[in-house]
Amino acid sequence: MKLVRIISVIGFYVTRLAAFAYLITALYVLLSVLLKLPGYEMPEHNKFSINYPFSNKHFLNGSENTAAYIFEMVALIFFYGVFFLLLGNVFKTFEQKKLFTSQGVSHLKRFYILNLFICPVLFVILMILSHEDISYPILLVAHIVIGIFSLFLVAIFNQGLKLQNDQDLYI
Amino acid sequence: MPIVVNIDVMLAKRKMQSKDLAEKLDITPANLSILKTGKAKGIRFDTLNAICKILICQPGDVLEFVDE
């Protein structure tokens, strides 16, 4: 369990950092576009760039300045922010001394719902809207597989929790 | 549950409080309460051994079968 705990701690902090970065980026893109912040530029007709805050260096480049394109950009970045946030919670579950807890089961449940239900719906919408060369089908399959394994983990943890609660009633 | 745990009777006979027994058994008062109120699913032999030692009694003094 020591190795599991070490990997979980590392995984937790890495995913928390990634989640923060993705969510802040999504918010920054949305605010830049909506409020036409100084970092939002249109170097060519119908193309746009979003610079790093307080800088002229390009951070993100958009090939179309349309609502659908911007929605795709923000939605995808926001989705992965939430993905890493929930993945961090899963790592936190495996970090705990007591493995089978109802909170752990909840974290796993939210993670599998995101991957197995929310992701397919979102990715199908983005596939229809997208003009970019993003391999949505491959990403979708990967997320569905992750979702299925998370679902299996929920089943295992539910069983483990029940057995643990029963064991706790042996004085 | 047909098995009734009569620890209170023995505690009264030995003039001991529940919390003192829990402390000597090295279990939480909550767990002792689970045992006394019949919510426990079972009792370990170690625990039963310790109860009998502390309360100077036999298992039959603290465990009773009541047919429902």
List keywords for this structure.
heterodimer, A: 171 residues, mainly alpha, 3-stranded antiparallel β-sheet, 4 helices, B: 68 residues
Briefly, what is this?
Chain A has 171 residues and is mostly helical. Chain A has 4 helices and 3 strands, in the order H-E-E-E-H-H-H.
Overall mean pLDDT of chain A stands at: 92
Main beta sheet strand tally, sense and closure of chain A: 3 strands, antiparallel
Radius of gyration of chain B: 11 Å
Q: What coarse outline of chain A follows from CA principal-axis ratios? A: elongated
Largest interface, C-beta closer than 8 angstroms, per-chain residues: A-B, 4 and 12 residues
Oligomeric state as shown: heterodimer
Report the sheet-strand fraction of chain B.
5-15%
Strand order of the largest sheet of chain A: 1-2-3
Distance between the termini of chain A: 25 Å
Order of helices and strands of chain A: HEEEHHH
Tally of individual helices of chain B: 5
User: Unreliable runs of chain A, pLDDT <50, ≥5 residues?
Assistant: none
Q: Which class do the helix and strand fractions of chain B yield?
A: mainly alpha
Helix content of chain B: 55-70%
Question: How would you characterize the largest beta sheet of chain B?
Answer: 2 strands, antiparallel
Radius of gyration of chain A: 20 Å
Mean pLDDT of chain B: 91
Number of strands of chain A: 3
Structure overview:
The complex is a heterodimer of chains A (171) and B (68). In chain A, 73% of the residues lie in helices and 6% in strands. Chain A has 171 residues and is mainly α. Chain A has a three-stranded antiparallel β-sheet with strand order 1-2-3. In chain A, helix 2 runs antiparallel to helix 3 and helix 3 runs antiparallel to helix 4. The two termini of chain A are 25 Å apart. Chain B is mostly helical and 68 residues long. A two-stranded antiparallel sheet of chain B has the order 1-2. The radius of gyration of chain B is 11 Å and the shape is globular. Chain B starts with a strand and ends with a strand. The chains are: A mainly alpha (171), B mainly alpha (68). Chains A and B meet through loops of A and helix 3 of B.
